[in-house]
Write a structure and sequence with these properties.
binds NADP nicotinamide-adenine-dinucleotide phosphate; 7 strands; alpha/beta; about 250 residues; Rossmann fold; 8 helices; globular; 7-stranded parallel β-sheet
C-alpha cells in the first residue's frame, strides 16, 4: 500500500525538474495526479510515462500567470477526479543577474509566476478543501527565502513572500482540517540551474564547495521524498512550517 493511496494531487510545474519528480513519486505512492505546465509535448510524455507505470493522471496545459487558466485547471481536476487532496505548487522561473540590471518586466515576470500564481491556486482550491474538511497545500519556496543569494533579487524576495504567505494562510485554515507547508530546496540539478553554472564544471564545483555542506547538487528526487512526507498523513501534525532540503547550505555564494 502506497503512502498516498486514494489521494488526488494537483502538481504544478510538472513538465520539468522538481514538479516532474514529485508527480512521478506521488504516482508510485498511489496518488492520482493532475499535472500542470504550459508545454503540451512534455505534458503528453509525462502522461504516457505515468500510464506505463500503471498510474492515473491528466495533464492540464495552463499558464499560471492567467487567472482564467487556473479556473480551467480547477474544473478539469474536479471533473476528472471529483476531489483534490493535495495541491503541490512547484511552477517557477528564475531571473539571475546583477541587481541594477533587474527590470520592471523582470519584476512582473517573477512576481506573477513565483508569487501571484501561488496566491491564485490556493484561492482556487481552498474553498472545496474547506467544504471537504481536509486539504493539504505544499508550496515550493527556496533556500533563498532565508539565505542571501547573489543575482536572484526579485526571485529571493518572492520566495520569502511565499513562505510568509503560506505560514499566515496556514494559521487561518488550520482548524478547518487544512495543512499548508513550504519546501525550501537548495541547489537542485534541474532546468532552472543557471546557464553559467550548468555550462562550467569549474563554476559548478566552486558553487557546490562554497554553498553546500554535502558537496553535491541535489537531485529532484531529494525534494520528492520530502513532498511525499508532507503530502502523506505521516505529517498530520505539521503545518505552517518550512521543510529545508538543501544539502546543508551554510553560506552565501
Ligand atoms: N532548481 C533549483 O535549484 C531550485 C532551488 C530552489 C527552489 N526551486 C524552486 O523549485 C520549483 C521548481 O523548479 P525546477 O528547478 O524544477 O525548475 P524547472 O525545471 O525549470 O521547472 C519549472 C516548471 O515551472 C513551470 N512553469 C514556469 N512558468 C509557468 C507558468 N507561467 N505557468 C505554468 N507553469 C509554469 C514549467 O513548465 P512549462 O515550461 O511547461 O510551463 C516547469 O514545469 C520552482 O518554484 C523553483 O523556484 C528550485
Amino acid at each position: 500500500m502506497g503512502r498516498l493511496e486514494n489521494k488526488v494531487a494537483v502538481v504544478t510545474g510538472a513538465t520539468s525538474g522538481i514538479g516532474e519528480a514529485v508527480a512521478l513519486m506521488y504516482v508510485k505512492e498511489g496518488a492520482k495526479v493532475v499535472t500542470v505546465g504550459r508545454n503540451e509535448e512534455k505534458g503528453k510524455v509525462l502522461t504516457d510515462k505515468i500510464a506505463a507505470m500503471g498510474g492515473e493522471s491528466i495533464f492540464v496545459s495552463c499558464d499560471l500567470r492567467k487567472k482564467e487558466s487556473i479556473e480551467t485547471l480547477k474544473k478539469a481536476a474536479y471533473d476528472r477526479f471529483g476531489k483534490v487532496d493535495i495541491l503541490f505548487n512547484s511552477a517557477g522561473v528564475l531571473v539571475h543577474k546583477p541587481f541594477l540590471d533587474h527590470t520592471d518586466e523582470d519584476f512582473d515576470f517573477i512576481m506573477e509566476t513565483n508569487y501571484r500564481a501561488y496566491v491564485w491556486t490556493m484561492q482556487a482550491f481552498l474553498p472545496e478543501m474547506v467544504k471537504a474538511g481536509k486539504g493539504n497545500i505544499i508550496n515550493v519556496a527556496s533556500i533563498s527565502s532565508v539565505w542571501p543569494e547573489l543575482n536572484a533579487y526579485y526571485y529571493g524576495a518572492m520566495k520569502a513572500a511565499v513562505t510568509n504567505l503560506s505560514r499566515n494562510v496556514a494559521k487561518e485554515f488550520a482548524r478547518q482540517g487544512i495543512r499548508i507547508n513550504c519546501i525550501l530546496p537548495g541547489p537542485i540539478n534541474t532546468g532552472m540551474t543557471p546557464e553559467d553554472i550548468k555550462n562550467s564544471k569549474e563554476a559548478q564545483d566552486a558553487m557546490i564547495n562554497s554553498v553546500c555542506m554535502l558537496g553535491r547538487l541535489g537531485e529532484p528526487d531529494d525534494i520528492a521524498y520530502g513532498a511525499v512526507y508532507l503530502g502523506s498523513d505521516e505529517s498530520s501534525f505539521v503545518t505552517g512550517t518550512n521543510l529545508v532540503i538543501d544539502g546543508g547550505v551554510c553560506i552565501s555564494n
